[in-house]
Design goal:
- It is globular and about 45 Å long.
- About 45% of the residues lie in helices and about 0% in strands.
- The chain is mainly α.
Length: about 110
Amino acid sequence: MGPAKAGRAVEGANEAAALRSVPTGITADELLTDEGYFGEGYGVTTAGCVEAIRLLSHNEGIFLDPVYSGKAMAGMIDHIRRGDIAPTDSVVFLHTGGAPALFAQVDQLELG
């Protein structure tokens, strides 16, 4: 992750922590960035993304978009399954929106 992106991510995470009155902040060194879940390109879904969208919508009532948050959640799920994230670890997933993109692809994602 480049310095500008890392700075925005740290800023967003620390702002979210402040909103929840969490007294600890994070630094760029503490961020895990794995671009291996991007797939073939922007707006092109991956199998993991589709699985994440279905899993969260069916089990949690949380709607992820197939461009950003679905791919990010697919990565997090994979890291959990591989044991990179332990059951005792604390994880904050910032859902950045994008749900309208989900509804534009209901048939393709077989969510209907």
